[in-house]
Design a protein that fits this description.
about 425 residues, alpha/beta, Aspartate Aminotransferase, domain 1, Aspartate Aminotransferase, domain 2, 7-stranded mixed β-sheet, 14 helices, binds pyridoxal-5'-phosphate
Length: about 425
């Protein structure tokens, strides 16, 4: 058996489907990729201009301070306050990272001890589970409830899942793979639940992991139940749904916000995102992780992010309009499919659809057959944990409406050939 921490982690599940897609492409098949959950639009022009300026005017390409370029920390803080209503956002609470994924690892390593439990709503974004396991913590899945056509948190299930070792609850809104958007009421209830359960880590456990709350009676970080809010798809919502950050409406002393430039600004290749902590001390603490992993986020990528933020007011509304056109075309294509029942997304770049035919053994078999027969790439719901089984995720963000319509025709041909 493999001796290290990676032992209990599967290979990223999308990799199997991608390997098959690669093989088919090698044989000359023309595929339609509804697999990748990205916004397939060119990034803001200003982002690229900033990178050009950097390349033209910078002689030595050194590190920048661990938390990021001061100008970008400032610009991110004003983005958080103007676009996400986080009124007290300050640059000293922002850290730039290699995407929201690294921001998650920074936060997790800073606030947990091995053996701590981390609550993840399911179906979940699988990289969160990998990171939790790598940190030596235990992911505790809490299935989202589904009623009246939408997913929401089942607070009864959540309360049952809390234990004295619960250290973090992870909220992803807009959600991947569900496309759900948590509303203000749900978020307030969640924040209140975290606040009330702060002290669940009882003294026995605290002493086991070497903590003593009395050392700092005012800031109870040692016993806090943290809320990590992954807001990777923040502005990619479909009215009347709108993104609400817990940091905008709840007291923020135990809330950590993760953000990304990958989706909203089409900058996934640049691996740039951020962490927004409850105070500057938190950022100082996470610098220990940042320095060990990457020292700082790549400076050219930070320049791209700075340019993107300069264009946010014009770029994002246009990107969202195009995203809605893409979403509508996929929803309308799926309406006439007999084997898939789409769940309307309120945000993000993909749709989760229930497989309604018993012909396939599981979601992987469905996705594999669709790819082999008709060349449409989707992601089996089982990639997002056991609660995603029986579903497939189809991303609309990466393709224009005309290609999405073609994908719909291919799915219908597939249905005719196999059911
Ligand atoms: C919920 C969620 N968080 C984080 C990420 C990764 O974001 P980044 O590219 O900023 O690391 C993704 C990418 O699919 C995601 O869906």
């Amino acid at each position: 058996m493999w001796p290290g921490r990676t032992r209990n982690i599967q290979r990223p599940p999308i990799a199997k489907i991608n390997a098959l897609a690669h093989e088919l492409e090698g044989k000359g098949r023309r595929l339609i990729n509804l697999g990748q959950a990205v916004l397939g639009l060119p990034p803001p022009k200003r982002a690229l201009q900033r990178v050009h300026q950097y390349l033209e005017n910078t002689e030595t390409h050194g590190y920048c301070p661990d938390p990021g370029l001061p100008t970008l920390r400032e610009a991110t803080a004003s983005f958080l306050s103007s676009k996400k209503n986080i009124k007290d956002a300050t640059a000293s609470r922002v850290m730039l990272t290699c995407g929201a994924n690294q921001a998650f690892v920074n936060a997790l390593l800073a606030v947990t001890m091995p053996g701590d439990e981390v609550i993840i709503f399911a179906p979940y974004y699988f990289d969160h589970v990998f990171a939790v396991k790598l940190a030596g913590c235990k992911p505790v899945e809490v299935e989202l409830a589904f009623s009246e056509g939408r997913y929401h948190i089942d607070f009864t299930r959540l309360k049952k899942a809390l234990s004295p070792r619960t250290r973090v609850v992870v909220l992803v809104s807009p959600g991947n793979p569900t496309g759900r958007v948590a509303d203000a009421e749900e978020i307030k209830t969640l924040c209140e639940l975290c606040r009330r359960n702060d002290l669940r880590a009882d003294s026995r456990i605290r002493s086991q992991v070497g903590m003593d709350r009395r050392t700092n009676p005012e800031v109870n970080f040692e016993s806090a139940l943290w809320l990590i809010s992954d807001e990777t798809y923040d502005l990619l919502t479909f009215p009347p749904a709108a993104h609400v950050s817990p940091a905008a409406i709840c007291p923020t002393e135990r809330t950590i916000v993760l953000g990304s430039f990958s989706k909203t600004f089409g900058l996934a290749a640049w691996r740039i995102g951020y962490l927004y902590g409850p105070n500057p001390e938190f950022i100082e603490e996470t610098i220990k992780v940042q320095d060990a992993l990457v020292v700082c986020a790549p400076v050219p990528s930070q320049m791209a992010a700075l340019g993107a933020l300069e264009e946010v007011d014009t770029y994002v509304p246009e990107a969202v309009s195009e995203l809605i056109r893409r979403k509508d075309s996929l929803m309308s294509a799926l309406k006439s499919c007999r084997t898939l029942e789409a769940i309307e997304p309120h945000g993000s770049t993909s749709v989760l659809a229930r497989i309604t035919t018993p012909v396939f053994e599981d979601a992987f078999a469905y996705s594999r057959s669709l790819l082999q027969n008709q060349g449409v790439i989707t992601v089996p719901g089982s990639a997002f944990g056991p609660h995603g089984e029986g579903h497939v995720r189809l991303s609309f963000g990466n393709q224009p409406p005309s290609v999405i319509a073609q994908a719909g025709e291919r799915i219908r041909s597939f249905e005719n050939s196999c059911t």
